[in-house]
Amino acid sequence: MEPKDDNYYIEKVLSGETNYFSYIVEKYQDIVFSIALKVLRNREDAEEMAQESFIKAYKSLGSFRGSAKFSTWLYRITYNTCISETRKKKQHFTSTDDVQISDEAEEMNLDGIPEENRARYIKEALEKLPEDEYTLVLLYYFEEKSVDEICTVTGLSASNAKVKLFRARKKLYTILNEMLKDELHTIL
């Protein structure tokens, strides 16, 4: 059976065939959990909030207008659900202004590193980013969302999203550069 687009499943659910929502959950569960985990930094809370996000999406499915992609709408629900949870727990976000970014970060080159190690380094570096920056990088580079879609998910202005994405990218380069220096020192 050929996979259908999100609107097909949404229409099925809205017409009373609620079991079709499982296709939506299956398609988006990894990214929803990933966003929740990065924002909440706790696996159990992330699982709970990912589930809560799908419940909210299911209950609000009738209000989905289709002016944005369904995935963008779902990510916005997830992001807001997690932010609300962090506010309840009074956790504070790390400001991007608190981190010094070296000028050497621009010169980093990953071409000499075997591809399997490259993926490991990038994953480790991403884990070191603050949750808001991680979410931006994840949405832009891995989910291939546009800046406008990211603004819809995060509530940021386009200029603020671009600045934060730029800072996150520079910080990621700095982190990778430090990791590679450490790795080189352990080899030598």
UniProtKB/TrEMBL annotation:
The keyword Transcription applies. Keywords: Sigma factor, Transcription, Transcription regulation. InterPro entries: RNA_pol_sigma-70-like, RNA_pol_sigma-70_dom, RNA_pol_sigma70_r2, RNA_pol_sigma70_r4_t2, RNA_pol_sigma_r2, RNA_pol_sigma_r3/r4-like, WH-like_DNA-bd_sf. GO terms for biological process: DNA-templated transcription initiation. GO terms for molecular function: DNA binding; sigma factor activity. Residues 120-172 form the RNA polymerase sigma factor 70 region 4 type domain. Residues 24-90 form the RNA polymerase sigma-70 region domain. It holds the Pfam family Sigma70_r4_2. The keyword Transcription applies. NCBIfam families: sigma70-ECF. Belongs to the sigma-70 factor family. ECF subfamily. This is RNA polymerase sigma-70 factor, ECF subfamily. It comes from Tangfeifania diversioriginum.
